[in-house]
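Section 5.1 Outputs to date
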Amino acid sequence: MRRVLTILVLMLAVWTRSARASSVGVVVTGDSAMQSQVRALVEGWLRANGHSVLPAPFTPDATNKLIDCIVLEDTSCARKIVETHATTSAVVFARVEVTGGPAGARDMVLTGYWFERGSEPVAEKRMCDKCSDTALVTAGDELMTALAGSKLKTVGQLHITSSPSGAQVVIDGADSGVTPLDVALAPGDHKVTISSDGHLDDARSVTIVQGKPTTLEITLSVVPPTPPFVAGRSKLPLVAIGGGGALVLVGIVLFATSETDTGEKPEYRDTRALGIGVAIGGAALAAVGAYLWFTSKPADSAPTVSLVPGGATLGWGRTF
C-alpha cells in the first residue's frame, strides 16, 4: 500500500510540473476596480485559444519586482524576472488604466506584454474610449489577438509527436510537457529529449526558424530484454587437468634424462625416481580434474549486464 501511495505521489508531482511548464501565467495590475474584469477577459481568451492558465505564476515578491520593471518600461528587467522566477514557460502581463467619469463613460487604456522563455517579449496597447462592458470585451480581445500575433512573428512553433504518445519532453534541460506537444521557441538550435517508461531515451537537436512551424515525429525504441542467465561450468577441473598433464610431461623428461652409474664418474645424477613420482602425481591430479569435470554441475552464479533507459546496470546473477 505504501508503494502504491508513493507511485501516486510521484505521478502527481510529474503531472503538476508538466502542466505548469506548458501553462501561461497571468498577472493583472492597474485600476483595482477593473482588475478582476480584465483578468477574466485575458484568462478567458487564453483558454478559448487552447492555453491552460496558471493565475499566480510568481511569488508576491517576484510579482512586485515585475511590476516595478514594467512601470520603468524596462523590458530587459521584466524578462529576467520571468526567466528566473516564473513557474510557467510563458507569462501574460496586463495593465488597465482608467480616466474619466462614471462607468460606461470612462476612458481606459489596456497594455499587454507576452513573455516567453528564451524569446524577446512583445507588447501591445489598446485604447477604449467611453468604455462600456461590451467595448472592454472587444478591446481585450483585440489586445490578446495582437499580442499572440506579435509573439508568433518573433518565435517559431515546434510540434512534437511520439510513439508511444504521452512521452515526457525536455527542451534545453527544462520539462516542457508530454506528447503530443505544441510549444513556441526562440529561433535557433534547441536540444529536445523524449523519454518514456520501457523505452530508450531519444535526444536530438532541432533548428527553429522564426515565424515557421517545425514538426518532430519520434518513434521510441523499446528497451531490449535482458539476455537470459546462462550458467557456466567451473574452470578449476580444466586447470587441474592441464596442471596434471604438465607434471606428467616433466616426470617423463626427468626419467629420460637420468644418468646411469657406469663407474666412469665419481658422481652422477639419478632422477628416475623423482621423474616417476612427479609423473604419478601429475597423472593423479589430471584424474581428479577429469572426475570433477564430468561430475560437477554448472556454476549457479555469474556476472550479468542489463540495458535500461539512459544507461546500463551491472550485477551478479544466480540460479536457484
